[in-house]
Structure to design on (342 residues):
């Protein structure tokens, strides 16, 4: 019996030793908590949920297209392509269609709305007070949303990014390139409040420099060419702010200003590529990408959109249109980057 007891004890000891060895070779056995998922940059890849994001874009033109693409790229980079679904609607330049597109997003209970341009932002702000709304390609949120005590934050379910380039620097550009000009015509769409805002601001700068300033406002696509013709007759130089209707009609504008030999300074690159000679421009892709990063912070981290300040482009660049400058006999300005050809 004693020999059997010793053998049994030996077998039990051997079994325990093997069990301990197995545990020591399996580090996960002592820690049942799963490791945090990381993306390729070592950052958390998201919370594993799939989000639906509604995108309402006012019109299909280069600047707004770039902002939408930047927004989508940022979310896909942060969340992974399979974790975000985009519902997209384009108003094709008709602002009256924006409320219908936005209402569709609200009825589907999307997780977040991107409003690309002023009219979509106004529609989204009116349609919902609970779904987070981010704007992009919006010049001045105070003007767009009729906020009198602007402090940089909307304070509701709305925030986003601005496409405003420094208007004092754009006025200085006009003076730099066209020092002998006497009259500057401001060409813009009367239906876009942010265009009127930009004209108000730059007019003050231009008058302070000694220019005579005249305004030429078209109502919509139908009278762009005729109003542009009138502007050419009354201006030495024309300035066009960031204006979606103008951006949709650069060919019509170019067909008037180039034969008339009247140079156009624009508020952004897409306009300059179509009908301008020089611009001080932001990157619309950049402001869209920043809005996408803000969206990720809201969706994944629970950031409060009501406390998020409106953000601006990180930099501006001086650019010129080589073909239009040549057509008007204007030398390529020093320190300016050529706008990429089509």
């Amino acid at each position: 019996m004693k020999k059997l007891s010793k053998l049994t004890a030996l077998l039990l000891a051997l079994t325990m030793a093997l069990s301990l060895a197995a545990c020591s070779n399996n580090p996960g056995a002592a820690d049942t908590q799963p490791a945090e998922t990381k993306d390729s940059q070592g950052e958390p890849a998201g919370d594993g949920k799939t989000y639906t994001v509604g995108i309402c874009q006012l019109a299909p033109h280069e600047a707004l297209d770039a902002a939408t693409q930047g927004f989508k790229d940022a979310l896909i980079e942060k969340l992974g392509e399979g974790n975000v679904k985009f519902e997209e609607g384009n108003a094709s330049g008709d602002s009256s269609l924006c409320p219908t597109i936005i209402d569709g997003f609200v009825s589907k209970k999307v997780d977040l709305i991107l409003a690309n341009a002023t009219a979509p932002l106004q529609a989204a702000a009116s349609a919902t007070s609970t779904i987070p709304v981010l704007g992009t390609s919006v010049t001045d949120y105070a003007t767009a949303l009729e906020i009198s005590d602007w402090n940089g934050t909307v304070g509701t379910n709305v925030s986003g990014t601005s496409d405003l380039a420094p208007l004092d620097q754009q006025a200085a550009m006009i003076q730099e390139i066209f020092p002998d000009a006497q009259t500057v015509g401001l060409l813009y769409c009367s239906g876009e409040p942010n265009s009127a805002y930009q004209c108000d601001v730059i007019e003050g700068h231009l008058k302070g420099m000694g220019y005579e300033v005249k305004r030429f406002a078209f109502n919509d696509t139908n009278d762009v060419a005729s109003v542009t013709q009138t502007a050419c007759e009354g201006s030495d130089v024309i300035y066009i702010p960031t204006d979606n209707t103008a951006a949709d009609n650069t060919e019509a504008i170019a067909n008037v200003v180039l034969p008339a030999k009247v140079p156009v300074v624009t508020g952004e690159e897409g306009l300059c590529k179509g009908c301008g000679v020089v611009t001080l421009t932001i990157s619309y892709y950049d402001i869209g990408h920043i809005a996408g990063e803000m969206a990720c912070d809201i969706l994944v981290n629970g950031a409060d959109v009501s406390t998020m300040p409106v953000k601006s482009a990180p930099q501006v660049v001086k650019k010129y249109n080589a073909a239009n400058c040549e057509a008007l006999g204007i030398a390529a300005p020093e320190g300016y980057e050529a706008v990429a050809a089509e």
Observations:
- The two ends are 97 Å apart (CA to CA).
